[in-house]
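Entry for the shared binder. Reason: the reviewer on the internal report wants the predicted structure included alongside the sequence.
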Amino acid sequence: MQPHIYSPSRQVPKMATAQPWMKKKLLLAEVMELLQHRVSSFITSMYWWFWCVFHNTLQRVHLAKQAETLQVWHERLGHQNKRHVMKVLKQHGINMEANKEFSDGCALGTARWQSFRTRKSRPSIVGKQINADVCGPMTERSVGGAHYYVCFEDDYSKFHHVFFITIKSQVACFLWRFLKSIKTAGHVTKVLLSDGGKEFNCKAVQKVLEEHGIMHPLTMPYTPE
């Protein structure tokens, strides 16, 4: 080995005295440092570019100077309790006009149906009152091509008789057949209860009911009870 003389005024480059494997390591470190510097510079320049673009396109915020009513703030804050709304507005220094305006949305949201009690005038014999309804159209037709069915229920015995029909206008025909079968069994029908659909509230059904002397009251809309 050749001796090396150290001189403070004369610095020997690292690459000149380093081994080959050390040269590769130092070169890789310098490349990584340069790459890191380039990436950070790119990120910084992109940040400033986005800031300049979006800063110039920001919309102005307009603050309302007129005092709104308590009902307006009540609706803006999701129909919360008005006492809580007043407390929050006072904490943030927001002026408002307190009034006793009625909130229709809150009244409708908290409303509920009244319970339906048992009817006192229910029939006490079989066949006196018949409840009828039509169901359909079904997503799939039956083997015989039916798309609907009409159901007749005896209100006292809860006996059900179902007829499959293709169209709703066939209700009158099957109603006549059902009433004939009840008369043959020895029962007398006095009331037919149904909804106000056109399949029941039509001339054909009314004619059948008049022949048998049957009353036809209609149920109230949207009250399946």
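Summary line for the report: The first helix runs from residue 14 to 17.
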